[in-house]
Specification:
This protein is of the alpha/beta class and 254 residues long. It has 2 domains: 10-80, 60s Ribosomal Protein L30, Chain: A (2-Layer Sandwich); 88-252, 3-Layer(aba) Sandwich (Alpha/beta knot), CATH 3.40.1280. It is 33% helix and 21% strand. The protein is built from 8 helices and 11 strands. The strands form 2 sheets. It has a 7-stranded parallel beta sheet, with helices on both faces. A 4-stranded mixed beta sheet has the order 1-4-2-3, sandwiched between helices. α1 (15-23) packs parallel to α2 (40-51) and α5 (112-124) runs parallel beside α8 (233-252).
Length: 254
């Protein structure tokens, strides 16, 4: 295994993240498998790597552990290219090519486990684009890749320096901007989510920042029946995203 990664490389671990990186267009440079590690997913990794002419090395599992630290690496690790973002200047053409846009804006999600879980839900729900602020968010690292089960490598991502200005742009283009707020919001199922939308999910502690509220066409509250009126950011995101899917399936019938 390499002694040091360059700034343009990322080290990931786990069977599903490595397999999904291979299945995607993401550049994968080298793969390490623990000696004696077998199974269906391992075979898929070996086959996919062979098809793409990517080197696979068998190493002692302790060697992988030395790189990953105290995590469950499942005997698999890989050296890959950095996570790439679409440039903000291409947003107009991106939106023009979508009949009905489904965009997710993550306002300073700081826990990499939450971020990974949200990305996993977003990929499952068919989100077209994930927008992250340039500052205040968890880095897209190996933990995010693992928690997302590799969904990270199948999503379009964009970084933005000014979310308020971006939301204003979405307003001008006719998108409904939905802020997920726990209080003082319209109940989520009452909001029409079938058109072009941008959903805003706030950070674990502060939620959606108040300077963004005026740019949101709707404030959505998730109906809750329990006594603990609080949802984890990734759980809240999953509920909102699947409500979008539910409404769109009900409208189209498929």
């Amino acid at each position: 295994m390499p002694e040091k990664l360059t700034a343009s490389e990322l080290f990931i671990y786990g069977r599903q993240p490595v397999l999904e990186a291979l299945r995607s267009a993401h550049p994968v440079y080298e793969i390490w498998l623990g000696k004696g590690v077998t199974g269906t997913v391992i075979k898929k990794i070996e086959n996919a790597a062979h098809s793409s002419q990517i080197e696979v090395k068998r190493v002692d599992k302790n060697e992988i552990q030395r790189w990953t630290g105290p995590v469950v690496h499942q005997g698999v690790a890989a050296r890959i290219g950095p996570v790439l973002f679409i440039v903000e200047s291409s947003l107009d053409s991106f939106l023009e090519n979508k009949t009905t846009s489904f965009i997710l804006i993550l306002d300073q999600i700081q826990d990499p486990h939450n971020l990974g879980a949200i990305l996993r839900s977003a990929e499952s729900c068919g989100v077209d684009l994930i927008v992250l602020p340039e500052k205040g968010s968890a880095p897209l690292n190996a933990t995010v890749a693992k928690t997302s089960a590799g969904a990270l490598f199948h999503l379009k991502l964009m970084q933005c320096n000014d979310l308020a200005l971006l939301l204003e742009t979405f307003n001008d283009k006719g998108l409904s901007v939905i802020a997920a707020l726990p209080e003082n919001g319209q109940l989520l199922p009452e909001i029409d989510l079938t058109g072009s939308i941008a959903v805003v999910i706030g950070s674990e502690g502060k939620g959606v920042r108040k300077n963004l509220w005026d740019y949101c066409t709707h404030r959505a509250a998730i109906p809750q029946k329990g006594r603990v009126n609080s949802l984890n950011a990734s759980v809240a995101a999953g509920i909102v995203l699947y409500e979008v899917v539910r409404q769109r399936l009900a409208m189209t019938g498929k």
